[in-house]
Amino acid sequence: MLERVLALLREHDRFLITTHIRPDGDALGSQLALGWFLRKLGKKVAMINSDPAPENLGWMAGVDDAEVYDGAIDQRERIAQADVILVLDTNALERLGKLAGAVQDSKAVKVLIDHHTDPEGWFDAAYAPDTASSTGELVYELIAAYDPALIDTEIATALYVAIMTDTGSFRYSSVTPAVHRIVADLLERGDLRPAPIHTALFDTRSLAGLRLLGLALETIRLHYDGQIGSMRVSQRAVRAAAAGLHETEGFVNYVLSVASVRAAVIFIEIDAGIKMSFRSQGDAYVNEWAQAFGGGGHRNASGAFVHGGDLDEVFRDVIDAAPRHVKLAPPEASDTLSADDLSYLIALKEKMEG
Question: Which CATH class is domain 211-353?
């Protein structure tokens, strides 16, 4: 599949590169790196997304190269005239947001470069091994297979951001010796210093963001003998902290850091519904849990969104569903069982019977 995608990159001249709504570091870093690489080859490249870059990525060189789609005639023409549309870091049409219709209607060759499970079937070609740590890893492999000498400081930085953010700063189980070799090559070719990049991404919060974090930490709850952890961020809390929703980036990892927790979920209330981010460790995979609520993602990092949902109701439904989708240890013996324990035992019984 790598050779097929490389052939398409060589054979065509006009490209559109897009990624999912609310792009994260892997999405935007992969997009920018691939776009700059193609421009070095003399290709015409449009990089257009449904949503703008988050604030914690605004420092990246060339971040404005990724346009926000507004339906302008110029943007529609470039989409319509593209020979190839490269879809990065998402394999579902609806995750393209405002671009979904234009991408679907285009006669261009549609190529998927992604590492999520269960891709949809409308792509003409794909480079999508779900064992990869990140889409950034896959874009690096494409560029390195073509000519690694084309990796300059800007491309190396974008790919480093992509890989680091999607591996939780290199701590997830998807990190392999090969990933570290890729990162070493990026550091060398780009002459990069990791500390300033990490600080810009993770260690710079506003006072309002810290206030919101404090309110969110108070909502942490443990379920199923402490194996599942949850956190809630309501609109009331966001207003009380005078913070933006982008400040919630990384909050779920505080839940996962609790010693007993194997899987964690954060519920974020927005106007349109409830956004959820799932994280886990080891073999307590969360992708099926997210899929049960219309989402998906990686085994240890997934997301979902419930349109128009009530925060309390969605919270109960998602937590109740956890034992049906996440591998948990049986509850420890005691004289009394909690409601969570009873839910888990019922789910375990259903699995054994079905």
Answer: alpha beta
